[in-house]
Structures are given as structure tokens and as C-alpha cells.
Amino acid sequence: MLIEFWLDQPVWLILGGLAGLLAATGLLIFWLAQGRLTQSFSASLTGVVAPFFGSVAILFALLTGFLASDAWERNRQASRSVLSERDALVAVRELSLAAAADMAELRSAVRAYLAAVVDDEWPLLKDGHASPKAAGALRELLREVSDPKLTDNLGQVAHTALLEQALRARSARSDRLALSEQYSDHPKWWTVLILACLTQLALALVHLERPRAQAAAIAVFSMAAVVALGLVAVKERPFDGPLALQPVALRDALALMTPAAPPALP
Questions:
Q1: Any domain includes 263
Q2: Are 81 and 226 a contacting pair, CB within 8 Å?
Q3: Least crowded by CB within 10 Å, which of 20, 133, 191, 244?
Q4: How far apart are CA 225 and CA 18, in angstroms?
Q5: Could you please report the per-residue DSSP string of 12-75?
């Protein structure tokens, strides 16, 4: 729940929360290393060689890379599913226009589905929910496309092409909904944050005899970790968060299919 609440915040709060956490842990580690109450104990740890820092930092870097790869892959999959859905619906419309038979009802069903997705379903994606209105519009579209009479009017080849494109749109919607239901991988995020704190601790151990260098090393690493993890956090969820994917492609397709209003009479 805490990770989800953090990822729901604006960009500046995501970065600010991360910076506050690493600043607090960095100051605590520095105080434990250089404070009067613990200085005698920390002095007994002097002698940890500098390469030790690399063993912890590599683990942090590897897991951060895996986390970033997962986030970027989800965003690519979401973009592909939206574009595939748009292309399939546009193809249904183009095939209906190329047919000799009057297929105005089919084109109206395509427009109704697009409008339901853009206006009703898209705001629900941030919570991983589907729209009953969009589901109903899709069923109506499939009913129009699967009408056996179309085979007589269009021919088997054209009717099969229409069915394939409609089913492609249905499959793309299913992929989009599946991606919206994927919540953040909490254990992976907690592991990355713990490794970030352990890397701060490793930096403190290799600079026990030089307080100023210790503070500078912890501060520089903490700033770098905020930049890296903050960038991953704002891209963690494709349909939610500050940089959520917008239905631009579907909205443009709807505008293309909406008949222009007749000019007003003077």
C-alpha cells in the first residue's frame, strides 16, 4: 500500500519522497559513523577496503536495471496495444467504405465503441477497471461484423477480413486491460530501496576516517539514486501516475470517423 500511495503522487512528490527517504537514511548512517555516542564502535570497523563498496553497488545497479527494464517494457506493450486497437478499428471502417453494400450501421458501431473507450473506459484504467459501456459497444460491433448476411453482400474474403480486424481490436483491448491491472512489484521496489540504503552504508564504511569525504560520497550517491529511481517510478504504470499514457491515437481515430457537421445556414 505504501508503494502504491507513493507512486500515485505527482512527479515532484515522488522525487521529494525518495529524496527525503535517502536523505534521512544518509544522515542517520553519517551520525552513527561520526557521532560521539557511536564513534568508538565505528572506529573499530576502520580498515574496510574501498572495493567492498562495489559489491553492494553492483547489486543495487543490477536490480535497478531490471526494475527499469520491466517498467519500459510495460509502457511499450501498452503503446503497442493501443495502436493495434486503433489500426484494427480504422481497418474495419476502411473495409466497410470499400464494400459495395451499405454498412453505415457497422461504422456507427465502430464510432460508438471508440467513444465509449475514450470517454468512459480510459479514466477507469488507472484503477485497473473495464467499462461496461465499452464492453457493450464491443459486443454490438462484433454482432454487426459477424452477421451472416455480410457474406452474401461482401463475399467470403472481405467478410473474413472484417472479422479478423474486429477480433484483433478485441484482443488489443484485452491486452490493454491486462496491462492496466498489473500493479507495482512491491517486493522488488522494497529490495531496491533497501539496497540503496546498504550502498550508503557501504560508502560510510570505506570512509570512516574521513568524515567530509564520507558525507560527500553519501550525498552524491543519494542524488544519483533519486534521479535513477525517480525516473523509473514515474514510468512504472502505463495507465496511471503522472506520465500515464493518453488515448491520443484512439481520439484521433474517433475524430476521423465522426461526420463533419453541416455548415450553418446564413
A1: no
A2: no
A3: 20
A4: 9
A5: HHHHHHHHHHHHHHHHHHHHHHHSTTTHHHHHTTTT--THHHHHHHHHHHHHHHHHHHHHHHHH
CA distance 218 to 53: 12
Rounded-to-integer distance, Cα 184 and Cα 155, Å:
48
Convert the pLDDT of each residue in 174-208 to its tens digit.
999 998 886 667 888 999 999 999 999 988 888 88
Chain position carrying cell 470517454? 119
Where in the sequence is the domain holding 6, given as residue range(s)?
2-257
User: Per residue in 87-109, is it b (16+ CB within 10 Å) or e — as a string?
Assistant: bbbbbbbebbeebeeebeebbeb
Of 184, 172, 259, give the one whose Cα is nearest residue 229. Answer: 184
DSSP line for 190-201: HHHHHHHHHHHH
Number of domains the chain contains? 1
Residue 19: burial class (beta carbons within 10 Å; 0-12, 13-18, 19+): middle
Which pLDDT score, from 0 to 100, does residue 100 have?
Answer: 63
Q: Assign 261 a pLDDT band (cuts: 50, 70, 90).
A: very low
**CA dihedral of residues 192, 193, 199, 205 (deg, nearest 10):** -140
Q: How far apart are CA 24 and CA 226, in angstroms?
A: 13
Contact predicate 203/221, CB 8 Å? yes
**Residue 36 covered by a domain:** yes
Judge whether 262 lies within some domain: no
* pLDDT of 17 above 90: yes
Residues of the chain with pLDDT > 90: what percent?
A: 52
What does the DSSP 8-state code read for residue 216? Answer: H
- Does residue 264 lie in a domain region? no
